[in-house]
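Case 399 in the screening queue. Each case pairs one protein sequence with one candidate compound; here the compound is P-hydroxybenzoic acid. For every case the pipeline is the same: read the inputs, emit a complex structure as tokens, and attach any notable structural observations.

Predict complex for case 399.
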Amino acid sequence: MRHGMKRLLIAAAMSGVAALAQAQTVKVGVVLTYTGVGAEFGQQITRGMDTFMKLHPDAFGSCKVELIKRDSKNPGGAEAKTAVQELITQDKVDMLTGFVFSPNAITTASLATAGKKPMIIMNAGTAWITNLSPMIARVSFSMWQSGYTMGQVAAKQLGAKTAVVGYTDYPPGKDELAAFKAGFESAGGKVIDAIPMGGPGKVPDFTPFFQRAKDKKPDVFFVFVPAGDHAVGVVKTYGALGMRAAGIKLIGPGDITQDNKLQAMGKDGVGLITVHHYNADLDNPENKRFVAAWKKEYGADSTPDFMAVQGYDGMAAIAHVAKTLNCKIDPGKAMAALKGWKFDSPRGPIMIDPDTRDIVMNEYLSELVEKDGKLYQKNLATTMAVKDKCKELGVGKCK
Ligand code: PHB
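Case 399 output:
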């Protein structure tokens, strides 16, 4: 090799080393419920994030992503606020993500604005959360996407004339009630009672609430609870009170048929009709790959649920921002990169609406069926590219 050529190669190799040494770290503050009533949600989201990183090692370009995890502990919002304050002032994160319970996002939105930190929401579903800060983009859902769609389906497809609504009494529950009522009544139905059923912090005895609903003899009983053990309690109480035999159909958003809780519901769950943006039984190639990778890592009996896919998609959004910005997170440029971002998710195609910074996605109508002693979701119909109806209609705080 000629001398000049050799020097050139050494220089190129050295600049490679220099580039590696300079590979910038993007610091992401992750605020999730790692303990307490939402601990399983925190685990699902974390595993979803990890599965994305495993399946897409090149998505981050040359950036190194450092995740700094903080426990928001409970649905109240106080711990989340302290966590976000520390992540911004002490850890000097570039971005924020996580946020399981709506109050955790509601109490911290102003900190994201003041600290100019892009905040990617991986669950918290109260519709108007995205209006609280221009720094927020949401990869999870708005309560109105399932609630309004289910209201329309209940009146049009299920032929229901009357409904009673039971809801966990905090912002997303109130939102889900408003959404279902708007969808149902605009299609000719009538909500004849709305029953607050305690807070999200602990699973109540649902018996008195469900008895009140049963006494009203509605065609359908629409229930929202924040998934998890609440959902199992709902289905068990519906069975114990003989509501199906009384001719009352249990319907709701997919929060009441969370994939990893189905087998605990047993026969009482068979026939439940829900609308949601994800279930593990969705038949598309991205989902097959996601579920297979999940089962390989976490065990054949383990199932990803809607929270897991939100963690997966949230990590995809973070990777997109990091790579697009060459690892230097300018807040304005990060938000610009998120607006209109599209991704082929296991839940189907998703997009961040450039006007609202909220997600646009399909909603799936499903029925819980039993096969070989196991419960699974049979997908009946798909509503494509659903936007947040609360902001479309300009209802209340969504204006
Ligand atoms: C929320 O607090 O926004 C929330 C929590 C759990 C759910 C849905 C919404 O299943």
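Case 399 observations:
- The longest strand covers residues 359-371.
- Residues 101-102, 123-126, 172, 226-227, 255 surround P-hydroxybenzoic acid (CB under 6 Å).
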